[in-house]
């Protein structure tokens, strides 16, 4: 049986603020939007150019408090060709980023950036 990853989902409190982050900061494009006003929620699917895997932002109209991220959520990961330049760009634009770091065995170099809801996105140096 053929299987493939379709999307991952995060719930967002402020859809406009989240869309600005994922589009303007991370360079994602809106793939489609499904509005369900009778059920009071909207789904927006985003993807990086050329990627098939999507990020689903779920916006519940009546959510007044920030979501509890819990201790089970890990992170979303995005690969970049130049980690240092990307880190500098995000830092200079005032984004909430961690310091550059890496695994002790050299398997990965990375940093984290937070979206408006506090979700962590790991930015990883792509390998050749």
How would you portray this structure in words?
The protein has 128 residues and is an alpha/beta fold. It has two domains: 1-62, 2,3-Dihydroxybiphenyl 1,2-Dioxygenase, domain 1 (Roll); 74-128, 2,3-Dihydroxybiphenyl 1,2-Dioxygenase, domain 1. Helices cover 16% and strands 37% of the residues. The protein has helices at residues 15-25, 83-92, and strands at 7-12, 29-36, 41-47, 54-60, 76-80, 101-102, 109-114, 120-125. The protein has a four-stranded mixed sheet, covered by helices on one side. The longest helix has 11 residues, at 15-25.
Q: Per CATH, what is the topology of the largest domain? A: 2,3-Dihydroxybiphenyl 1,2-Dioxygenase, domain 1
Q: Tell me which CATH architecture of the largest domain applies here.
A: Roll
* Rg for CA atoms: 16 Å
Task: Please estimate the helix content.
Answer: 10-25%
Uncertain spans, ≥5 residues at pLDDT below 50? none
Per DSSP, what share of the residues sits in E-state strands of 2 or more residues?
A: 35-45%
Cofactor: Zn(2+); Ni(2+)
Organism: Alkalibacterium pelagium
Enzyme class: lyase
Family: Belongs to the glyoxalase I family.
């Amino acid at each position: 049986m053929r299987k493939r990853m379709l999307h991952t989902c995060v719930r967002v409190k402020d859809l406009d603020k989240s869309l600005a982050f994922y589009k303007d900061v991370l360079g994602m494009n809106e793939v489609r939007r499904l509005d369900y006003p009778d059920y009071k929620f909207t789904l927006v699917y985003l993807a990086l150019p050329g990627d098939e895997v999507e990020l689903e932002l779920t916006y519940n109209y009546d959510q007044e408090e920030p979501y509890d991220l819990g201790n089970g959520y890990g992170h979303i990961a995005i690969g970049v060709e130049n980690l240092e330049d990307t880190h500098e760009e995000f830092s200079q634009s005032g984004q909430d980023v961690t310091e550059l770091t890496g695994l002790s065995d050299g398997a990965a170099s990375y940093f984290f950036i937070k979206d408006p809801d506090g979700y962590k996105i790991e930015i990883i140096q792509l390998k050749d």
